[in-house]
Write a structure and sequence with these properties.
Distance between the termini: 55 Å
Number of helices: 10
Oligomer: single chain
Number of domains: 2
Helix content: 40-55%
Strand order of the largest sheet: 2-1-3-7-6-5-4
CATH topology of the largest domain: Beta Polymerase, domain 2
Low-confidence stretches: none
């Protein structure tokens, strides 16, 4: 919200980066292919990258890092991208959406994956970054990733390099579908890891609920809130992409988009199930803590109940009343037990008998 307030009041189409600050250089990766040819190389300059373009081949230009607005604007202007789309690329707080322009299709979504580098340093290795995919009319796909680093497209790159599947035989619209499908499939991987964490957390909460587990529960719930905000619009995005009447998407690709839509629906259903489970775990934690408190109070109550009559007996015989007048004569209403040679033993026997009687009574009532 702090970053978004900077842009408040700016005119539409204002190019301003809203996201995490970084000093890394923008990286451009270029892949060009058809069924028989394949070319791949990384660049730092878009002009050098475009010098390798060949007609008749599908081109995938991936830009890692949108923090350098000058480079992003330069690339987009070379492909005649609308200023509103350029604005969405730089605004990393953008809600996932699909837009159909005359010369291109633009999709903005959230890419979620587990960073193995961060996993070695911290338990919270979940990365959520913005991804914008643009399908051009000249068999070109542009993808703008928020950060410089890992992504979920290694499977796509390997299929392109090895020529596996139908991706090398199809056009740029199928490549766009493959990228969207890879993003959706990555949600399943993240949900599987979150599901394992929930199962372990549930077992620990039943055995030994403690504030540390409550902290873990809040962390997972916060992740699910971010996750839900990222994936709920994906169903609408893919549905609009499938129903688009744009000539850039062939009818043969719509079949695969319907499959991606089904996957998005499954992800949403799983997310809602996990949210219900987390709510149940919160109730389980509160119930477990309450039950433990009740057990403690029950134990203290039983101990107090046992010692109340003993305290009464000790209090009575601790008064040491001895009624003697001025002449030294013992008066009535004296405590004769004080002078009995067996008085001490008798009082102890009385207290032990009271204790045993109370314990037997509590046992029969199944209170202990």
């Amino acid at each position: 919200m702090k970053h978004m307030s900077i842009k408040s009041g700016a005119p539409p189409g204002t190019l301003m980066y809203l996201g995490r600050e970084t000093k890394e250089d923008v990286r451009i990766s270029f892949i060009e292919y058809n069924e028989k040819e394949f070319f791949e190389e990384d660049f730092t300059d878009i002009h050098e990258c475009l010098s390798h373009v060949k007609k008749g081949l599908v081109k995938w230009i991936n830009i890692d890092g949108v923090h350098n607005t000058k480079i992003v604007e330069e690339i987009c202007k070379m492909f005649a991208i609308h200023p509103l789309t350029i604005e969405d690329i730089s605004n990393t707080n953008q809600r996932p959406k699909f837009e159909d322009f005359e010369k291109y299709l633009a999709t903005t979504m959230k890419m979620i994956f587990e960073d193995q580098t961060l996993k070695k340093q911290s338990d919270d290795a979940l990365v959520i970054e913005q991804l914008t995919i643009i399908l051009m009319s000249d068999q070109t796909v542009l993808s703008f990733q928020e950060a410089v680093g890992g992504d979920v497209f290694d499977v796509i790159r390997n299929r392109l390099r090895l020529g596996k599947g139908r991706i090398r035989k199809c056009g740029a619209d199928y490549l766009m579908y493959a990228l969207v499908d890879a993003v959706v499939d990555s949600y399943f991987d993240v949900l599987e890891k979150i599901g394992d964490e929930i199962e372990i957390l549930e077992d620990n909460l039943i055995e030994n609920p403690n504030p540390k587990l409550l902290h873990q529960l809040h962390n997972i719930k916060r992740q699910m809130v971010y996750f839900r905000k990222a994936i709920w619009p994906m169903r609408e995005l893919i549905n609009n992409l499938e129903r688009s009447e744009s000539e850039l998407i062939l009818e043969s690709t719509n079949i695969y988009l319907r499959d991606a839509h089904d996957h998005a629906v499954r992800v949403i259903d799983t997310t809602e199930t996990y949210r219900d489970l987390l709510s149940g775990l919160m109730d389980l934690y509160m119930s477990s803590v309450s039950n433990r408190m009740n057990e403690v109070m029950k134990t203290l109550t039983i101990i107090t109940t046992i010692f109340v009559p003993l305290t009464f007996v000790v209090g009575v015989y601790g008064m040491n009343f001895q009624n003697v007048n001025s002449a030294g004569k013992t008066l009535p209403f004296n405590m004769p037990e004080l002078y009995s040679p067996y008085g001490y033993v008798i009082v102890w026997g009385l207290m032990i008998a009271l204790t045993m009687t109370l314990l037997v009574y509590f046992r029969r009532k199944k209170w202990i």
